[in-house]
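Reading a protein record of the kind used here takes little practice once its layout is understood. An example of such a record is reproduced below.
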Amino acid sequence: MATDAALVAPHIIMVPGVRGVDQSRIAGKGFKVRILVEFIRSGLTPDDLVREFDLTLAEVHAGLSYYYDHQEELDAEIAEGAQFEAEFRKTLPRSPLRDEWERRHPPESAGG
């Protein structure tokens, strides 16, 4: 783990990120709290995350607790990531597989 990491809550560290924006992560795992929240929003349960990502239930709930304590900041980070992904996808060449994926998984509306 990065030597510049600082414990900010039980199981949660803050590490320097790109563009000068620090990132909250699960201590000892490097798993971003932002990603944890995105998985929960996609329908995974805390137990699913424990099984799939070598996390403990305490780590998952600590990440969710940190998210709720810093929701506005993390929601902005999630939105920025989604915007970056959308812009990046525009640069990719078209393919039948990509067209089919987008047909089955349309982007969410801006409202939510």
